[in-house]
Amino acid sequence: MKRIMRWLANLGVVLALAAGLAVWIALPWFGVLAVAAVLAAWLLLSRRGQQTLAVASVGVSSLPQRWGASSVIVVGIAGVVGVLVAMLAMGEGFKATLNRTGNETTAIILRGGSQAETNSVITRDQVPLIGQLDGIARSRDGRPLVSPELSQVVSLVTRADGTDANAQLRGVGAMAWELRPQVRIVEGRRFEPGRRELVVGRGAREQYVGLEVGRTLELANQPWTVVGVFESGDSHESELWADAEVLGPTYQRTAFQSVTVKLDGKRGLARLKAAMAADPRLKLDVETTRHYYNKQSAGLTRLIQILGTVVGAIMAVGAVFGALNTMYAAVAARAREIATLRAIGFRGLPVVVAVMLETMLLALLGGLIGALLAWLVFNGYTASTLSGNFSQVVFQFQVGPELVWTGLKWALGIGLVGGLFPALRAARLPVTEALRAA
């Protein structure tokens, strides 16, 4: 019967721990501050809290004597946090790059039902019809701000390892520069309409071989000259741009894939949708470019987050076992000390909380080290990955305060799990048995 009761008690502890961890992971920063404030008030103002501080101070003061064993917790948790933050920083950097690409003042038009440019077709006779629709802004000379575009994947040699990789060659219309004012030529000049000339994003130039100004590329068995380099601070920096009217015939394209337009005011999108729905010749969809690029980043960002969480969880299990072994050994080494404290009137709660505070202090130190290493090594690190168009997008890892905060919550969660069961053992240790064993 006692075994069943003990088993049920342990099961209750595990279930409560699992629920507590779920709440802890979901807790916002102000919730954590509230928990910390309540704990600090209890430690300072209550009798048992002061007893807890006394027991914890003894344990913390003895850390230098057992630093070798304690470093297992610190190093293990630092590794978990470092890997987790680095993985999530990759997803955040990719998401931020694509999110910066679009805005609410421009819209992209695709064939009805298309999810990306790669599976969209807009015929040439539809482009003039689109330009006459209500909701599209016009330039000073009265021309609609419309850029019919096509996307072509080309194979280029990477600088990193000399292998072939996909790059996105975008054919744009004459209005593309006005539609994307963030695109700035930083070296050379723009391509001239009607000529086989390219301008390349700075990220693409750093990623691939042979994209310096003045170099000639052979694309579709035709020579193309690189005449300029541009910056945009978004995913367009991973692209090569050319005149769509020249690029289309080169690759035997008789249609476009998308049309980017400038919206006329806040109601521009609604007016454009209404006008498009009223014309039976236009079976097309339209959405803001911000919404479009947010959708393009969502799938890969979610995959990276899932992978990062799974890898972090697997490493966290190892760190928890390391913490358990270390704290069990610490409790065993301090058996006489804990028994003496309980013999002179210290209750089980102060002992439990003191052991857990000691473990979570080590966990916090490991979390800070892991987050710092992730920030030093990966923040601003340039990488590339495949986009929705199956071409490489150059982006930078972003280690921000939110990711550091996530890593620290994971560290403290590991410390909570790793310290709870040794703490319970210390509180349940019979006084006479502990004194006799010591």
UniProtKB/TrEMBL annotation:
GO molecular function terms attached to this record: transmembrane transporter activity
One Pfam family this sequence matches: FtsX
The keyword Transmembrane is assigned to this record: yes
Membrane topology value: Multi-pass membrane protein
Transmembrane segments: 7-23, 29-46, 67-90, 303-330, 351-378, 410-427
InterPro entries per UniProt: ABC3_permease_C, MacB_PCD, Macrolide_Exporter_MacB
Domain of life: Bacteria
ABC3 transporter permease C-terminal domain residues: 310-430
UniProt keyword annotations, A-Z: Cell membrane, Membrane, Transmembrane, Transmembrane helix
Location in the cell: Cell membrane
GO cellular component: plasma membrane
Residues in MacB-like periplasmic core domain copies: 72-277
Name the UniProt record assigns to this protein: Membrane protein
